[in-house]
Amino acid sequence: MQKQLMVVRGLRIALIGCHTRDENALLLQFQRLGIAGDSFSHFHPTIFDAPYDGMIFDSDNRALIQSMEQNSWPALAKIALLGMETPSRVKWVIDQNINGYLRKPVKAEGVLSTLILARHDFQRQKQLQDQLQQFEHRHQLRRFLLSAQLLLIKEFNFSEQSAYALLRQLATEQQKTVEEFCLIVLANPEAWIRHIKLLSL
Description:
By secondary structure, the protein is α/β, with parallel strands linked by helices. The chain contains seven helices and five strands; from the N terminus they run E-H-E-E-H-E-H-E-H-H-H-H. A five-stranded parallel β-sheet has the order 2-1-3-4-5. Strand 1, helix 1 and strand 2 form a beta-alpha-beta unit. InterPro entries: AmiR_N (IPR049021), ANTAR (IPR005561), CheY-like_superfamily (IPR011006).
């Protein structure tokens, strides 16, 4: 776990649609922990025009549930306050992609650990999503690698392995990934064919 995720002092947390009893308990504990807490009776996207480090919402708030049918949560760590445990309510909470939860009525115990774990889970999910996007991007570029290899095979009678080795060498010289470099080659194949011919002289 990243060291900064263990620090909660100075965080700013939004409380959305929480019951007064739970809201007061959270704000009191926030005060003890050095956390700034802002309370909102209803969700509105403009709430998050201000910078927040996370949010806590009441999963039993019917108005909030209805509101989220037309809205989406911002990309922040989300903690749900759980009261009702009907299958439909639990499913709704799962669908919100929460990073943690607190049982109602809220008590001081567990708030600190839940905040830390929720922020860690959010960061971990974000990193996984970033890695997946990078993988998908590179997967899309693989077809350009194949096209560049076929170009070298056709022009120089290279084997598939030799074509790849040369592309990788040239990509390293250009400080690019081999897939990114293949895009450059295919954008101007004649110039790169001439360049490769000069290298072989």
